[in-house]
């Protein structure tokens, strides 16, 4: 569990006013000095993440956020960062005290509601003071689990832990497999994994590793090759593979080197299936056919790696868009967990696969885009569209293919 990537961990965020004891509560829950604790308001600035284990759930990430009642200009920037994380939490722990409970908690719950994020309330510092009858009634009216505790003395910290486990257990959605439900025991799958500058030294990228593990768990046979060995691998197999999964960057050559009769998809397309809503993203891909000179496109990455010379999101996709659609497209890049609040200037959003974040994080971004009527697609679907092989790639998911075709028809746009 120690090495579980953050994108496969449950994310638990702690929110509330300054000096409510959010940092102290995390330290008490983990038994570690993860967050700096001080009586000075505003000690926590940017959200602080700490990977941990929470029995019996397993690997989680605790996120300590800045107080949402900060007032000056810098404080408001901190508040925006804190609130930006609300939508993609698996659980929000609202932390308050008897003397500060009030409108903050109601406002936070209102922000959580559209994203269906579960929440519990921890009334901290009960070693110092208690709720009045009126406050107790208001707390009960929130309609969420409540625990009275003291991070300083450890009073009822176990009850806080139990409330977190209970809330998460009752709201957990089973992980969606990457490729495991496309095969059966004994099937043979060919994985095409080019080794470029973006690949970590001595390792494969996370979606490739995840695919291999799922195939092994499913009892399938797995052959891994680079793109220049596809023809050789196919010729050496006694029977055609049940499926080919290729890196999006080489999908055109793999499609050319493999018979149409063999189902073909990409790692990034499968990430859209696993991490988000493939049907919605397939529909969003149709927006690429409507782009014209001067339109604005947002390319969004959830990780903040140092860009390489052949970086897929910041170099290759912008180049392919301009070469294929128009050199006058205006392309903006959003990196890391920052995501623009106003998406309306964009004709389409091209989101990365999201291998380093959770499914809830990806769904929160998709929901935000759809609420603002901005179509979203992802790297793999975009590349397959630009390379002219999208329909074949989506053939593994007939409903997504139908959604894409219907979106094209609705907008009366030509199909690539």
Précis, in short:
This protein has 416 residues and is an alpha/beta fold. 36% of the residues lie in helices and 17% in strands.
What secondary-structure arrangement, pairings included, does this model have?
Blueprint lengths: L9 E7 L5 H9 L17 E7 L3 E7 L8 H12 L6 E6 L6 H10 L6 E5 L9 H9 L4 E3 L8 H15 L16 E5 L13 H12 L3 E5 L4 H7 L6 E4 L4 H7 L6 E3 H9 L2 H8 L10 E5 L11 H13 L5 E5 L13 E4 L7 H13 L4 E3 H8 L3 H4 L4 H14 L5
Parallel strand pairs: 1-3, 1-4, 4-5, 5-6, 7-8, 7-9, 9-10, 11-12, 11-13, 13-14
Antiparallel strand pairs: 2-3
Give an overview of the whole structure.
The chain has helices spanning 22-30, 73-84, 103-112, 133-141, 157-171, 206-217, 230-236, 251-257, 267-275, 278-285, 312-324, 359-371, 379-386, 390-393, 398-411; strands at 10-16, 48-54, 58-64, 91-96, 119-123, 146-148, 188-192, 221-225, 243-246, 264-266, 296-300, 330-334, 348-351, 376-378. By secondary structure, the protein is of the alpha/beta class.
